[in-house]
Design goal:
9 helices; mainly alpha; about 0% strand; globular
């Protein structure tokens, strides 16, 4: 039970104000909250599952630098599409042939792969030797933190003009694109 509680607290605390929370908020300004919730939960389970099951094994084959680079490019593309096309950019994401669920899952998964939350989950698994409880605690921690972001995104979506939301959303994605690009460069 310590593994569950420790994992939840550590991951929840580390996700507050993290890029995934802001990303969830940005997606929730133009995609239904339920879709964002389901997508984030799936991506969080996948991400934390990889941390628990494979740990550092994967990074022997896929250098984290390239994963970060792919995440940065994704953020920048979403930001630029939103900035350039405004509402139409959001419609492109919503109505892409892959749909918003795949778009959110893939963006979230790539951006969280190899970050502090996943590495913390790996360390917690090694420490507690209780992978199921670590997986449940870490997934719950990241999900609850992102629910806060989604609620804020829905609230802002109702209170602010659409044009302002497009700029905020674009800004969030572009900023995290550059931050992630910098992180990839320093690896």
């Amino acid at each position: 039970m310590n593994a569950l509680i420790s994992s939840f607290i550590l991951v929840f605390a580390s996700e507050m104000g993290d890029k995934s929370q802001f990303m969830a908020m940005a997606f929730a300004t133009f995609i239904k909250a339920r879709t964002v919730l389901i997508s984030i939960l799936i991506a969080a389970l996948l991400n934390m599952g990889i941390a628990v099951l494979f740990g550092s094994f994967i990074t022997e084959y896929i250098p984290i630098k390239y994963v970060k680079l792919l995440a940065a490019i994704s953020f920048l593309i979403f930001g630029l599409i939103t900035l350039k096309n405004g509402h139409e950019g959001h419609e492109k994401i919503r109505k892409s042939k892959y749909g918003p669920v795949f778009t959110i899952i893939s963006t979230y998964f790539i951006s969280e792969f190899g970050d502090k939350t996943q590495l913390s989950t790996l360390a917690l698994t090694a420490t507690y030797k209780s992978p199921i409880f670590v997986l449940l605690g870490a997934t719950a921690g990241i999900f609850i933190a992102d629910v806060i972001g989604i609620v804020l995104g829905v609230y802002l979506g109702k209170k602010l003009p659409t044009k302002i939301l497009h700029y905020i959303s674009a800004f969030i994605f572009i900023i995290f694109g550059f931050i992630t690009l910098y992180e990839a460069k320093t690896l």
